[in-house]
Task: structure prediction
Amino acid sequence: MKVEYFIGIVPPKGYNERIEQFQRKWISKSGVEPHITLKAQGGLTPDKEWIENVKRICGNVSPFQVFLGKPKYFGDTILYLSVDSDELHILHQKIVKGISPSDELIKRYFELDDFVPHLTLGKEQYGENISTPLSKDVLNEMERTAIEELTPYPAFKVDFIRVYELNTEKRRYEMFLDIPLNG
Result:
């Protein structure tokens, strides 16, 4: 059985529900709740020894503000809400350095210098969980709808981070552990 983890930041409950309702127009079942990826899978090993490092790092970081912004794309296949927060970049760097994945994993998961904080709305895909195949045209429609339905884009305080674990039976990432920031 494959064990995978990643670390994210969860927007406030009310806004997360808005994003989920928005996504359900195109995606019947998402692989994870809406989140901002803080640390991708690379180096988050099944032995979970990295969790103590992450807790120690978070214990030395004060809560901070994150600002969601207008939709953007990675290439033309992934639509996301932009995220602005210097403190989020700093926390990302501390966690990546504390876990010390290989240079290859850092590159594969677009970390450190390649890190772009984002909240994915949809990506080009086809399959059983997709109500409408997410083609480039559909992503463009999602972008237009997001501008209408998801504004105003909120700012919110981050006072914890969430570790997600892959549930292989459900083919979905689920909450594994919340880690508070110092405060």
Remarks:
- Strands lie at 5-9, 36-39, 64-74, 78-84, 118-123, 155-158, 160-167, 172-180.
- Residues 28 and 143 are 18 Å apart (CA to CA).
- The domain at 5-180 is CATH 3.90.1140.10 (Cyclic Phosphodiesterase; Chain: A,).
- The mean pLDDT is 91.
